[in-house]
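hey so i finally got around to running the thing on that chain from the lab meeting. sorry it took forever, my laptop kept dying and i had to restart like 3 times. anyway pasting the input first so we r on the same page abt which one it is
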Amino acid sequence: MTNKNLKWQLPFLVILIVGTVLILRKQAPYQTNEGMVFGTIYKITYQSKENLKPEIEAALQKVDNSLSPFNKQSVITHVNNNENMEVDSLFTQVFQLSKKISKETHGAFDITVAPLVNAWGFGFKNATNVTDAVIDSLQEFVGIDKIDLVNGKIVKKDPRVILDCSAIAKGYGVDCVARLLDSKGVKNYMIDIGGELVMKGKNPKMETWRIGINKPIDDSLSVNQELQTVLEITDVGLATSGNYRNFYYKDGKKYAHTIDPRTGYPIQHNILSSTVVAKDCATADAYATSFMVLGLDSAKTICNAHPELDAYFIYTKEDGTTDIYFTEGMKRYLKN
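ok and heres what got predicted. didnt touch it at all, straight out
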């Protein structure tokens, strides 16, 4: 390059650099809000000039007021107490989606499983002395076919039916925050509520969001954070379900928190961890739990029937070693 050409090009280079700096300065910063909701931690990172934490927490409180069985004034608590009342729009959306996914998973997903979850000591009531007779008696009023939504009110075939939306409510809460951020014109964000996520756009480094899937190591205190793999992923909902953090031992036997509503007993399948990617987090959340109940073979069948879902499973082989299986569509997100 001659000195004459360089002399002409330098001003344009300076203008380009200054312009780039000015554009970057005009970009909104990334905010990070953290707190507690639904008995777990939330962390939300988003690009906005405005700190939206008050509005985010108001949206999450609406979900809690509708779907939390620990909230004595929530809609679901009133329904469980057989009070004559109309449910709100949040409850209606979750109920209808739950009915749909229950049908598609042949009953593996069931929001009436609460009495069984409580009996085994994983719900919102104290555990009981579980026997076959106890399970048989509880199953008389477990089954999503025993409830319906008529003219805005829940109708039960048996007043003892109790609802628990914990396998879908966190994911739905994530979706509610995503809708809020979308309404505010936020283009780049990641919402994480207890490991249920929605990602959109880019991270603060202007790269695709990177999400780790933990190795399923028995760890009730959540100390071990060793990763199985890392996903580069955006514009989807993601949820992971596993039994390696919520379990207990009694009389030398391990009891996992995922209960099969069809049998009444904690699952004994070979899936250790189920990660699902879907268009929204509520759907991902519900299917991740369903696949834990169904086991690997049935989970594969459902994934094949629903190409809009992608999944990554860590499971135990017959020889006791662990292995992985993932859908074809999951390959686009796997980076290691």
